[in-house]
Amino acid sequence: MSATDAVAAEEKVDIDPSTLNPLSPEVISRQATINIGTIGHVAHGKSTVVKAISGVQTVRFKNELERNITIKLGYANAKIYKCDNEECPRPGCYRSYRSDKEDNPPCERAGCGGRMKLLRHVSFVDCPGHDILMATMLNGAAVMDAALLLIAGNESCPQPQTSEHLAAIEIMKLKHIIILQNKVDLCKESACEEHYQSILAFVKGTVADGAPIVPISAQLKYNIDAINEYIVKKIPIPIRDFTSDPRLIVIRSFDVNKPGAEVDDLKGGVAGGSILRGILKVGDEIEVRPGILTKDNEGQIHYRPIFSRIVSLFAEHNDLKFAVPGGLIGERFIHILKCQLLYLSFII
C-alpha cells in the first residue's frame, strides 16, 4: 500500500446516510445543501449581489477583473441566519455570512441580546451575462435548484440576456425564482415604479410569473436582509437522496501538477461540481466518466474511465470528511494526492 492509500484508509469515514437530511446541523454547519444561480444581463449586478450576501468576490481571474465582467462561472457559499429574539424586527433579523462563520453567533443589532440560528447554507452559482458566454451559463444552470434574476432598474426591461437567461431556466424546468430589481439607488421613485410594471409585463406567462420582486441596491447592500428572508421562506430545500450510490456532476476541473513533474511527485486532479445523489467520503474509490477520450484511425471515439480515490473534500473554506447532495464541492486543492473533490462554490 502506498503512502497515499494509507492516508486515505486512515481517514475513511463511517457515516449512516439514513440519519442525515439537508438541514442536519452536522451537514449545514460545514456544507451548502442548495444551489442558487444568479442570472440576468451583463453588468446588472449578479456578482455584486453574491458578494453582498456571502462576502465572497466571485470575479477572480485577471481578465475578469480588468474588464469588470464575469467570464467563468463564479462560486460562493453563504450561511443565512435568523435572530431567535422574537422582538428583533424583520427583515433585519435575517443575516448572511461567509461559510466559515460559527453556527450560533450573537445578533449584531444594538441592544438585541439574541443569538442567530443557522437556517440555510447556500451555494451561489454566479453566471456570466454576456451573450457569447451563454454556454457557460447553461453549464451552471445544470446544478441550480433556484435562481435570482437580476434586472437593473436604471435600464429598460428586458435586456437581451435577461430574456435568454429566463428562457434557459424555463427549459431547465427551474420553478423557484426571486426577481431582484437592482440599482434602485440610481433611479427616482416614479421611475422605479414604472420599471417595476415593465418587469411584471415581461415575466407574465413565464416561469417567473408571480415570483417576488425585491427592490435592492447590491452596491449599497440595501435590502440584502430581505433577500435572505425570501431565500429562507420562498425557496424550499429540494428532496435529496442520501442513500443511493453517489453520483456527482462535474462542472469544472483543475490540473494542479507542476509541468514536467515526475510520477512520484504528481498530486492528482481536482474536480468541482455538485453531488446529485448519495454521499461521498474521504477514502472512497471513484470512477470518473467518460474519462480519457481517444480517436482511432477510423475516426471512432473511444473512452476509458479513470479510477481513483478521494483523498480530501472541501466546501469553500471548510474541509469535509463527507459530502452530501446539494451545494458545490471543490476549489481548495492543496495537499491532494490522487483525486480531490472540492466544493465547486460551484465550487466544484
Automatic annotation (TrEMBL):
Residue ranges annotated for the Tr-type G domain, each copy included: 31-239
GO molecular function, one term: tRNA binding
Keyword annotations of the record: GTP-binding, Hydrolase, Initiation factor, Nucleotide-binding, Protein biosynthesis
Enzymatic reactions: GTP + H2O = GDP + phosphate + H(+)
Domain of life: Eukaryota
Top EC class of this enzyme: hydrolase
Enzyme nomenclature, EC number: 3.6.5.3
InterPro entries linked: EFTu-like_2, eIF2G, eIF2g_dom_2, eIF2g_GTP-bd, P-loop_NTPase, T_Tr_GTP-bd_dom, Transl_B-barrel_sf
GO BP term (any one): formation of translation preinitiation complex
Pfam family, one: GTP_EFTU
GO cellular component term, pick one: eukaryotic translation initiation factor 2 complex
Protein name, entry field: Eukaryotic translation initiation factor 2 subunit gamma
Higher taxonomy: Eukaryota, Fungi, Fungi incertae sedis, Mucoromycota, Glomeromycotina
